[in-house]
Specification:
The protein is of the alpha+beta class. The chain has helices at 10-16, 22-30, 91-94; strands at 8-9, 34-36, 39-40, 47-48, 54-56, 59-60. The chain contains 3 helices and 6 strands; from the N terminus they run E-H-H-E-E-E-E-E-H. Keywords: RNA-binding.
Length: 109
């Protein structure tokens, strides 16, 4: 774990690695399921770098994929969320399975 503010927060790092959403990772931290450099982390505000050894439930987390951005023209009737409480069809359900761990942004500025 880095003591300075270099790197990125553990939740963002693990979300980009496909472990879960940032909120999921914050819950995992609270449950003591994340180990960084052989130390169970207690705070979701922990900053990490690619040089840190990170384990989730005992499994080593490998290097992150680089960020990829693509434009998707959302068909009418789909909602932009991963989980819809009203069970409407989501954008992510219409994507190929390789892209379903993606996150959405409508900020194209």
């Amino acid at each position: 774990m880095t003591d300075d503010v270099k790197g990125e927060r553990i939740a963002k790092f693990l979300a980009r690695a496909g472990v879960g959403s940032r909120r999921d990772v914050e819950r995992m931290v609270a449950e003591g399921r994340i180990i960084v450099n052989n130390e169970v982390i207690q705070q979701p505000a922990t900053f990490v770098t690619a040089q840190d050894m990170i384990r989730v439930d005992g499994a080593v987390i490998g290097p992150q994929e680089r960020t990829r951005v693509w434009r998707y023209h959302k068909p009418t009737g789909l909602v932009t969320t991963h989980h819809d409480p009203q069970n409407r069809k989501t954008v992510f359900e219409s994507l190929p399975s390789a892209y379903r761990a993606s996150s959405a942004s409508d900020d194209w500025t």
